[in-house]
Recover the amino acids of this structure.
DNA sequence: GTGGTCTAGACCACA
DNA sequence: GTGGTCTAGACCACG
């Protein structure tokens, strides 16, 4: 559960870490009930601004990934998907569309894109990165 | 070739329109050599500021999607992809990863995600949206 | 003495033609006293706006490359360099600097740049392009 | 790292500054990781509009020369040239051709041009200007 | 504090 | 008419 920040990435720091935490939840690196480092600790280890660390946890709590308990800390939420399946579909479809348009535009075929997706899927399952 | 802006979308409007133009180029709605509405015209129809419209075309010209000719207008560029294949792979893989993590996190299976991708692919090919 | 316009070039039409005429003068395709097509003729063959054709000749006349005689036409000027050598030096140095900075920035060595220069020099002498 | 604007120059000021920054990167005045003045600071010192200053940094970021980090500032990018060597050659050759045509047209010999190039090269290496 | 987005509007360069 | 440059200034997102 070691997070890393790529400062040469245009993506904001807080989004980079959010993505990594979500990934850990997906590939089993983090399980429901697991406790995460405190905001101060996270800020210290990642050497980021405490307000940025707070933002990370707040967003994740807002999305239902984490549960923040006053004075106790942050914990991975139980897998209770309270999001409407329509909404889920919409979110994933939007990502899929972006990926497809970009890939096709850059000259890839549908099959080549599928191969890339598969590779990423394997890498997620293995807990890589 | 009708573009639309969703003001409830957190994505900046110039990026929304950029995506839509790229999509049109991919699904054949726009072909190399086709002329696009002028900056002023685009600004008028979308009811955005001309400088924002200019930004849309400028970014697309930078990316090699459009060609801007002073005094003449904006045209779809010929398909000459000069992007390194590594770079293409990297871009698509990043999108794929985001999509997979989000889908899996929200409880979808790999198969369900594949179905969504396929639906999006079909919709792009048909020139929908 | 056939000029061509690359509409996929960001460089303005009038500058493209000016460059080509200058090149012809340099490599002997056009010699002092030679008559050029009239403005109307140039506009017609290149399928450009007559005002653009006029601009081409006016700029070249201003730079001393051509001489425009009312009612007679445009002629290549005799090689009387009336430009101060300082000025010449300044102009060429500016071009050289741009070329060097761009080449070095993109990872070329001085020798590699020299090779490119030499190749261009040969191509100019041969009257290519 | 002092930039200057020549208002008697027909070249747009954002391009003048871009060139100067590229030059600094080439001659070692600016190294990867170095922080540049903020957009607002640059605008203030050059007495230009902040949006013009932003444009300078944006273009350089697009070209991969700088990296902009929201909330942090602008930094010189690490030297990762991902431009196709064909493209590099094409760019430098175009500059070389322009320089040669102009020099020859104004009566310089090949040797005289080479001397000017060499002088510019020395001046770039020394970090002059 | 930083950069990112958007507006409103002027003036120039090009065809 | 077209796109290109620049200004002036507002408001948001990020750290």
């Amino acid at each position: 559960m070691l997070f890393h920040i790529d400062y040469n990435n245009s993506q904001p720091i807080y989004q980079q870490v959010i993505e990594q935490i979500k990934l850990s939840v997906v590939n089993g690196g983090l399980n429901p009930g697991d406790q995460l480092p405190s905001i101060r600790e996270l800020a210290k280890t990642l050497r980021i601004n405490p307000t940025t660390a707070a933002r990370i946890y707040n967003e994740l709590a807002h999305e239902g990934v984490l549960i923040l308990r006053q004075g106790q800390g942050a914990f991975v939420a139980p897998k209770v998907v309270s999001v409407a399946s329509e909404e889920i579909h919409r979110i994933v479809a939007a990502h899929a569309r972006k990926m497809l348009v970009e890939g096709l535009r850059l000259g890839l075929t549908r099959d080549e894109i599928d191969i890339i997706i598969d590779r990423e899927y394997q890498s997620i399952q293995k807990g890589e990165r």
